[in-house]
Amino acid sequence: MKHPHFTTVGRTLGIGALMLLSGCTMEVLSPKGDIGAQEKTLLLTSLGLMLLIVVPVIIMTLYFAWKYRASNTKAVYMPRWSHSTRIEVVVWTIPCIIVAILGVLTYKSTHALDPYKPIESSVKPINIDVVSLDWKWLFIYPDYDIATVNQIAFPVDTPVNFRITSSSLMNSFFIPQLGSQIYSMAGMETKLHLIAREAGDYAGISANYSGAGFSGMRFRAIATSNEGFQDWINQAKAANNPLTPESYQTLVQPSERNPVTLYSSAPTGMFDNIMHNTMSKIAGLDPASCTPTSQNLIAGNN
């Protein structure tokens, strides 16, 4: 007969576990783009191969503990046993085969999913320059002369080429449902290529702790139709809110949970200025050697 106290505790723990899991969205396992789908396949394949070792070991551990328990007098007791060739062959051969398979998968996927590798497509890609600030994301569309904070948009089935840097602390740019994350680092440029196969509003995050406002450093990635993307571009251009060196000085100051902001224009070469001027500060170069626009951007980073 079950004790009522144990039943209550069991139910409480079960409900608590369900409540905790209710906050998990499992976005990595619900990919909406080619890169994310390939990474999901790689993840599940690797997990399955490793479980081929883990599951039998767990089962045998429980079986041996039960069979050779002190109360089982029928179990054969062999205190001088020390070696079994058959067991050695199984213990070493199977893990070696699995490690070899994982090695081949890792080698192939490292090249196939290289974040710097452009996505092959007959469709012209969208270029987005990404700058991580404290604690928000600045996105610049050099081909459309607009910029945004904490929101991007792009057409479905269109490759997106990201150039990524940071104005200060290192962060990690990540859209879980589309694929790979990559770091943004001050004075350096990293690249990422993604594509969305389904329309949607996807969550973007910083996957690297960068201080007090880290938890709110989130953005939205909107995959839409070509018409929807053009409407979004027109909305930004109609905002009558240019991103000037002066407004950048305000934007670059640390702030938390910034709302989405659209800028109707952005200075030409702004991404390169931010990256190179940050590099100059790190190297201790004289800002006087920079262009006037660059000097203003440097002032905004101080």
Number of strands: 11
Q: What fraction, in percent, of the residue positions are helical?
A: 40-55%
Count of helix runs: 7
Strand content: 15-25%
Spatial shape: elongated
Low-pLDDT segments = 18-23, 287-302
> Roughly what is the average pLDDT, rounded to an integer?
86
Query: Order of SSEs, N→C?
Result: HHHEEEEEEEEEEHHEHH
Radius of gyration: 27 Å
Measure the end-to-end span. Answer: 71 Å
Query: Can you summarize the main beta sheet?
Result: 6 strands, mixed
Q: Tell me the quaternary state.
A: single chain
Which structural category fits the helices and strands? Answer: alpha+beta
Tell me the strand order in the biggest sheet.
Answer: 8-5-1-2-3-11
Short characterization:
The chain is of the alpha+beta class and 302 residues long.
Written account of the structure:
41% of the residues lie in helices and 21% in strands. It has seven helices and eleven strands. Strand 1 and strand 2 (136-141) form a beta hairpin. It starts with a helix and ends with a helix.
Features:
single chain; 302 residues; 21% strand
Question: Topology of this structure?
Answer:
Blueprint: H1 4-21, H2 34-67, H3 85-112, E1 126-133, E2 136-141, E3 146-149, E4 151-155, E5 160-166, E6 171-175, E7 179-184, E8 190-194, E9 200-206, E10 218-224, H4 226-237, H5 245-251, E11 261-263, H6 270-283, H7 292-301
Parallel strand pairs: 1-5, 4-10
Antiparallel strand pairs: 1-2, 2-3, 3-11, 5-8, 6-7, 6-9, 9-10
Helix pairs in contact: 2-3, 5-7, 6-7
